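haha ok so turns out i had the wrong file open the whole time. this is the CORRECT one, sorry everyone. sequence first:
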Amino acid sequence: MKNSNKNSTFVLWLTGLSGSGKTTIAQNLKNKLEQEIKNIHHLDGDEVRAKAKIPLGFTAADRDKNIKLAIDLAKEYQQNNINIIASFISPYTHHRNWGRKSLDNYMEIFIDSPLEICQQRDPKGLYQKALKDEIKNFTGISDPYEKPLNPELHIQTHIASIEKCVDQIYKHLKNNSWI
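then structure:
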């Protein structure tokens, strides 16, 4: 994590299992940051899939394409002076390393929750489908999630409320002069 200039744009990369709370935290954090930063965008998988105009599944190759597209979009936003909160499972270490190497002022935030809790939260029923083998290569079930070894922040959503998780990120940004 480097941010030598408070006026530079940043990319907060939220990674974690499906159902860990990435999107909810990203949306709440964006709302909180908008009070201080007007040029902020939440980048998520739905936006990337819409721009890709190709169906992306759960294979390793499709995941790679999805993350490369997300990084390219984040770069575009940064070039237009827009800060990014990106919420992507990004299950492989090399995905997050691509972001770290490609994006300025990149901060990796591990949104962590045990698989059992993520399965209970499962708003789209994806874990149930994966357990029934209706979805192949699903992260946490039939495909691995490589937990980040050195994220700038490790947020545990099964221990703290969404508000406390958002505050933890916000305070980290403040204490490190990112905002």
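Residues 60-79 form the longest helix (20 residues).
again sry for the mixup
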